[in-house]
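Q: I'm writing up a methods section and want to include an example of the input and output format. Could you take the sequence below and give the corresponding predicted structure tokens, formatted cleanly so I can copy it straight into the document?
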Amino acid sequence: MTDQTTQRIEQMLDESSVFLFMKGNPQTPMCGFSSNTVKILKDLIGDGFSSFNVLEDPEIREGIKAYGQWPTIPQLYVNKELVGGNDIISEMFNTGELHELLNLTQPDRTAPKISITDDALSHIKEGLKDMGDHQLFLSVDDEFNTRFSLEKPKGYEVIADVGDLKVYMDIGTAKRSDGVEISWVDELQGSGLRIKNPNEPPAVKDLSVAELQDWFATEIENPHVYDVRSVDKVEEGTVDHALRLDKAAIESIESMEKETPLVFVCQVGQSSMSAAEFFRKKGYSKVFNLTGGYNAWNE
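A: Here is the clean output for your methods example:
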């Protein structure tokens, strides 16, 4: 590693007391490990950290590995000291060590209240036979994807009593699963667990052109409208008050309250649904997709 590379790295670390070398950027992480580390930091300190995308600079990508004598990316530095990569950050987040390092209040370790029907409990128990020293884990990620697994406890988990079962989880799951209802369903499509989570944001709503136009005409807070199409298409024409969904727009949305009304539009209403669903899963509760897209608006 050259002296110039060392100087560049140290200049970055001088920029912020919390600095993350990652693949991609906080808005669009380019690997699962970087994505998870960003989620943890945002959960704790919001946008109060700086980052550098090592994929854009091979010199820094290799140099930071030598600088911190750490072979993988991401790497988190606090007050110019290397904390570690994704696995260490995840463990420190769950133990409360990361909160302490960042001078934050220790995490709430209250076990969530989860209800379960007798049928669901019976089927889960049947699947837990011969599980050895493994325990039943529940995971609810920040997009409310939910899964059960059998794992060995690490000692820092929150443990909830579900029926007469002990269910282990990390602190993020504990916060997102309070009030969850677990049942068993037998349907034509098959049988399985049904999990109802009251904390999950409401589904994306369809919004017609007429409804959007009426909304604009009222004194009710107008929605923020975003066009997901290419620059060329948006320049040819778009919905009134719409902005193109680019990096700056994404950053703007992320700074908004979760109750802010958001409307997404594309050419016919399909691609925009993906964008709408993305932000719904990020916790936004008033997300709409323009039915028929710009074609319907332009009729």
